Amino acid sequence: AYPPEASDRDQWAIARIVGVIMAYNRNILPAEKAPKAWVDLLNPDFKGRKLVIQDSAAGTSFNQMYLLEKQFGADFMRRFGQQEPIIVSTTAQLIDMLVRGEALVGATVDHFRAFEP
């Protein structure tokens, strides 16, 4: 899906690509109740400090919030805010909260962080 101008003579000019995913602790939240799509974060079961996100000062999180608003609109973002997410400074804090069961879903996880031991 890269544009043709991103490659020249088999050399790629991509700085970095990071997938942002949702993560959850399967010991706390059963798989059938885990969100499968971004709009699932609006489920009432995740309201009231059950979602944890990284603050938007982080570039990855800032870009994620920008793209979510572009994709789903300002109403989605307002409703997401009404879920009363927990906001932390770092992905490490977010993962720690999931591991300890202090939140059900981490909604701004760099994909590689979810698989760290």
Description:
This protein has 117 residues and is of the alpha/beta class. The chain has a single domain, classed as Periplasmic binding protein-like II (D-Maltodextrin-Binding Protein, domain 2, 3-Layer(aba) Sandwich), CATH 3.40.190.10. Helices cover 27% and strands 19% of the residues. It has three helices and six strands; from the N terminus they run E-E-E-E-H-H-E-H-E. It has helices at 59-72, 74-81, 91-100; strands spanning 7-8, 11-12, 20-24, 51-54, 86-88, 105-110. The strands form two sheets. A four-stranded mixed sheet has the order 3-6-4-5. A two-stranded antiparallel ribbon has the order 1-2. Helix 1 (59-72) packs across helix 2 (74-81). The longest helix is centred in the middle third of the chain and has 14 residues, at 59-72. The radius of gyration is 16 Å and the shape is globular. It starts with 6 loop residues before the first strand and ends in a 7-residue tail after the last strand.
The whole-number mean of residue pLDDT values reads: 85
Report the total helices: 3
What is the number of domains?
1
Order of helices and strands: EEEEHHEHE
Gross morphology: globular
Q: Regarding CATH, which class?
A: Alpha Beta
**Structural class by sheet pairing and helices:** alpha/beta
C-alpha-based Rg, rounded: 16 Å
CATH-defined fold name: D-Maltodextrin-Binding Protein, domain 2
CATH superfamily: Periplasmic binding protein-like II
Low-confidence stretches: none
Looking across the biggest beta sheet, what order are the strands in? 3-6-4-5
Helicity, in percent? Answer: 25-40%
Major beta sheet, specifics? 4 strands, mixed
